[in-house]
Amino acid sequence: MSISFTFGRTEVIDNTLNPDFVRKFILDYFFEEKQNLRFDFWAISHAVLCYICLIVTLRYELTRTVDCRGIPGKKCGTIILTAEELGNCRDSATMQFCANKLDKKDFFGKSDPFMVFYRSNEDGTFTICHKTEVVKNTLNPVWQAFPIPVRALCNGDYDRTIKVEVYDWDRDGSHDFIGEFTTSYRELARGQSQFNVYEVVNLKKKMKKKKYVNSGTVTLLSFSVESEFTFLDYIKGGTQINFTVAIDFTASNGNPSQSTSLHYMNPYQMNAYAMALKAVGEIIQDYDSDKMFPALGFGAKLPPDGRVSHEFPLNGNIENPYCNGIEGILEAYHQSLKKVQLYGPTNFAPVVNHVARYAAAVQDGSQYFVLLIITDGVISDMSQTKEAIVNVSMGLVLTVNSSFFFSAMVELDGDDIRISSRGKLFVPFRDYMDRTGNHVLSMARLAKDVLAEIPDQFISYMKSRGIKPNPSPPPYTPPGHTQHTQI
Q1: Cα dihedral sign, 270-332-425-259
Q2: Contact 285, 291 (CB under 8 A)
Q3: How far apart are CA 35 and CA 25, in angstroms?
Q4: Which parts of the sequence are annotated with region: Disordered (predicted)?
C-alpha cells in the first residue's frame, strides 16, 4: 500500500522531444525510508519510477538515467535526473580570544570576565549563540579556544553583524557589564591581525565621561575553519555500507511447523523474521554496490553431527557466506530452517565478533559495517555481548526483536545503558505490528526506526577516527546525453 500525492510540476517547454527543464524541486531525504519518486509526462503519457536512494548513492554528480515506461515493447525515451545536497553553510569555525586592561569591577579584586556572542537577525534583534568560560580574577584574560558552527554565528551571511558583550561574573547572577564591540564573520576570518583587535566600549560610561576611551581591548588570537562533512559526502566519495544479518535459530522461537513459532513456514505469507529482514534489508541494500551480503545463524544444531553453532552461514558455505541481495538471504534462511535443529543457547557475541573481524581490517572509511540481529530476545551471554559491542570496530550494531518476550533485551538498549555511543541497539518488533494487519505499513515503520540513527552514527564514527570523505569523481555524461532534469 502506498500513498501518492503531487509534489510539483515543471514548466511547459513547447515543441521539443528533448526538454531541459529548469525548475528545481527541494525534497527531504531520509536514509531510513524507501522514498518513491514518480515522474509523469502528460503530453505523451509516459511514467518514470525511481527511488531517491538510487540517486544519492551515485558518485557521478548524483545523476541517474532512468528509462520511461509507456507503450509495451516500445522505447519511450529516458529522463536524466540530477540531484544536489543543499549545504547550508556546513563549516565550523574554531577561534580563541584574549583581552587586555579590562575595567576592574570587583571591589576586593579585579574582574572575573567572560564574553557572550550574539548573532544579528533580519529584524534587527540579536540571538545568543555562544558564551565563553569565566576567567577568574584578572583584567587580562585568555579564554579557551571554542568551536562554533558558522550558521550559528552568522546564518551563512559573512557580513552580518556579530555583537560581543564582555561581563564580569558575579556569583548571584547580577553580572556587571564591562562593554561590547561588533564584528563580522568576514572580519574574523582574517585571523590574528591588526584588524581583529577590538575596543570594548561601555556606551553609558562613554556618555558620562568625556575622556573615556574604552574599557579594554579584545584580541583574536587564532581562527580556523573546518568543513562539517555529511552522510552524503561519504556516500558520494564511494563509502560502501556492508550489511550483515544474523538470525536466531534457538528453540525458544518455537517449532517452525507450528503457527505459534516466529519461524513458522507459512506458505501464504512471510513470518516475523522474514518481514523484519525484508523491511530493513530492502532499504540498506542500495548502499552496497555489489549487493552481496553475509547471512549468519546462531543457536542451532547443524548436520550431520548435531554440533551446536553460534556462527554458521545460512547458505552452508563457510568460506563464502555471502548471499545475492535480500531475496538471496531469504532463500538461504528458508533452506536453513529445513536443515538445522533449533537449539540454544542465545549467544550474540560470536556473530558480533565475526563482523568485527572484517571491520577491523578496513580502517580507511571506504566501508562501514552494519549488523542486524533478529532474535526472540532471550540472551544468554550478556556480559560477553556487552564486551563485544564496546570493543567492536564497526560502525553499528542493530537488534530487531521479533517476540513478545524481550525483558532481558532491554539491558542492551543504548538509550538506557551507554555501553557505546551508538544510540539505540534494540527495537521491539511487537510495537510495530499494525492492528489492521497491514504488514507493509508495519514494516515501513520498523525499518524507519531501526535505520533512522545510522547517518548520525556514521558521521560520529568517521569523525572520531578523523576520516574525511574521498572527493567525488569528475562528472560523467552518458554518450549522446547533454540535457538534465534537476530535482
Answers
A1: positive
A2: yes
A3: 15
A4: 465-487
Residue 16 has pLDDT above 80, yes or no: no
Write the CATH number for 264.
3.40.50.410
Residue 459 lies in a domain: yes
Indicate the average pLDDT of the chain: 78
Q: How confident is the model at residue 413 (pLDDT cuts 50, 70, 90)?
A: low
Model pLDDT for residues 350-390, shown as the tens digit of each residue: 998 898 888 888 888 888 888 888 888 667 888 887 777 76
The three grid cell numbers given for residue 181, joined into one nine-digit string: 564591540
Work out the average pLDDT over 292-296: 94
Residue 66 pairs with which residues in a beta bridge?
79
In this model, does residue 52 exceed pLDDT 50?
A: no
Q: Hey, what's the cell of 392?
A: 567492536
How far is residue 478 from each of residues 37, 78, 140, 354, 426, measured CA to CA in Å?
22, 12, 63, 41, 44
Sign of CA dihedral 346, 349, 353, 356: positive
- 472 falls within a domain: no
> CA 378, CA 381: separation in Å to the nearest integer?
10
Q: What is the mean pLDDT of residues 105-127?
A: 87
Do 124 and 244 reside in the same domain of the chain?
Answer: no
Helices (H), 122-202: 150-154, 185-188
Q: For the residues of 140-153, what is the DSSP string, one character each?
A: S-BPPPEEEEHHHH
Q: 374 and 261: one domain?
A: yes
Q: Is the pLDDT of residue 417 over 70?
A: no
The boundaries of the domain holding residue 207 are: 91-227
CA 325 to chain centroid, in Å, comes to 23
pLDDT at 295 over 80: yes
Closest CA to 421 of 449, 459, 451: 459
Instruction: Please give the DSSP secondary-structure letter assigned to residue 106.
Output: -
Out of 177, 198, 227, a domain closes at 227
